[in-house]
Write a structure and sequence with these properties.
By secondary structure, the protein is an alpha/beta fold. The chain has three domains: 2-42, 434 Repressor (Amino-terminal Domain) (Orthogonal Bundle); 58-158 and 298-326, Response regulator (Rossmann fold); 160-297, Rossmann fold (3-Layer(aba) Sandwich), CATH 3.40.50.2300. It is built from twelve helices and twelve strands. The chain has helices spanning 2-8, 12-19, 27-39, 53-59, 81-94, 128-135, 160-173, 189-206, 211-214, 225-239, 253-265, 299-315; strands at 63-68, 98-103, 117-123, 141-144, 154-158, 179-182, 215-216, 247-250, 275-277, 294-296, 323-326, 329-331. Strand 8 (247-250), helix 11 and strand 9 form a beta-alpha-beta unit. It is elongated and about 80 Å long. It starts with a helix and ends in a 9-residue tail after the last strand.
Length: 340
């Protein structure tokens, strides 16, 4: 939208009003802005995921419902989820489309007026009961970082399998052979997919991965309970003279931070005694001691992609639901080193 404004010589506000069919713009200005928008590829004739000119006229009074879990660490204050949420809101604002945000923990979905509801975007883990309630509105539906077999909806995920496959392969390339994955693989589809990425890397290089020997399936907790449980596991290994694994691949950065702290508090060195990796690249993990190796997730881009998919779906309701994977990038920092 900014490019259209710069090229046409008008403010972004005037361009937004024009593309949304709102009054207050002269016909000559409107025609010039629409011409520039077409030349820049903003409207596509038959396909793509931008909103077309005629649809702006019909939807400018509509709104999108955004549903956040708002429990524990999945809320708009979260370092991770807030960026996805902001990506959604920023994209909708750029398009000049209204938004209503509700929590999955209340019953406001029944009170939403559906006459102008364009579609629904859910962010994170939302209970099946709530999803079924929302699906009654019979509008296009996009789920971010979640899917449910009972709900017909498009979904958007990070490429969790490939991201963990790459970071695990890096550890294996350094010579690590005794690796463990830490995370509750039943917590979410993303955690399970990351476990699959870990297993795939081990099976590619070592022919086998026994879940009993390479998985610590610990209940997910964003506080200190996981750290305490892991310390007990370390004590058990010591008492039984079980060698410490050379590396821990964690389902996300929060888990990795707790694991790294527990190791250090128990007298182990990271990466001297073992390496630790996470997933998400939260803002603060580069400042940990040592800085955490992780997998970069383009959080704002995922939010924006959810909006573009929603409006593509509005125009293409006849097609089957799609699952989009957004690629990730490994970031190797000082929490990873050569095995002892």
């Amino acid at each position: 939208m900014q490019l259209i404004a710069d090229t046409a010589g008008y403010s972004k506000y005037v361009v937004s009003k024009t593309l949304n069919g709102k009054p207050g713009v002269s016909e000559a200005t409107r025609q010039k802005i629409l011409f520039v928008a077409k030349q820049l590829g903003y409207f596509k004739e038959n396909s793509g995921e931008n909103i077309q000119e005629d649809q702006y006229k019909s939807i400018h009074n509509g709104f999108v419902l955004v549903v956040m879990p708002n429990h524990r660490y999945q809320n708009v204050e979260s370092n991770y989820w807030s960026k996805i949420f902001n990506g959604i809101i920023d994209e909708l604002e750029d398009l000049g489309i209204g938004v209503v945000v509700i929590s999955s923990q209340n019953n406001l979905s029944d009170s939403v007026k559906t006459s102008n509801l364009l579609g629904i975007i859910t962010v994170g883990l939302v209970a099946t009961e709530m999803l079924l309630q929302l699906s009654k509105h019979q509008v296009p539906f996009v789920m971010v970082d979640h899917e449910d077999p009972l709900i017909k909806a498009d979904s958007i995920f990070m490429d969790n399998v490939d991201g963990v496959f790459k970071v695990t392969s890096h550890l294996i390339g350094l010579g690590h052979k005794e690796l463990k994955f830490i995370g509750d693989i039943n917590y979410s589809r993303s955690f399970y997919d990351r476990w699959i990425g870990f297993r795939t890397a081990l099976e590619k290089h070592y022919d086998a991965c026994n879940p009993k020997s390479c998985l610590l399936n610990m209940e997910y907790d964003d506080g200190t309970m996981l750290s305490m449980r892991f310390k007990k596991q370390l004590d058990q290994w010591r008492k039984k003279s079980v060698p410490l694994p050379s590396g821990f691949v964690c389902a996300n950065d929060q888990i990795a931070e707790q694991i790294m702290a527990a190791l250090q508090e128990s007298g182990y060195s990271v990466p001297g005694d073992c390496s630790v990796t996470g997933f998400d690249n939260l803002d603060h993990v580069s400042s940990l001691s040592p800085p955490l190796s992780t997998v970069q997730v383009l959080k704002e881009a995922i939010g924006k992609r959810a909006v573009s998919k929603l409006f593509w779906r509005i125009r293409n309701v006849e097609y089957p639901a799609e699952k989009i994977l957004v690629s990730c990038e490994t970031i190797i920092r000082d929490s990873v080193g050569l095995p002892k």
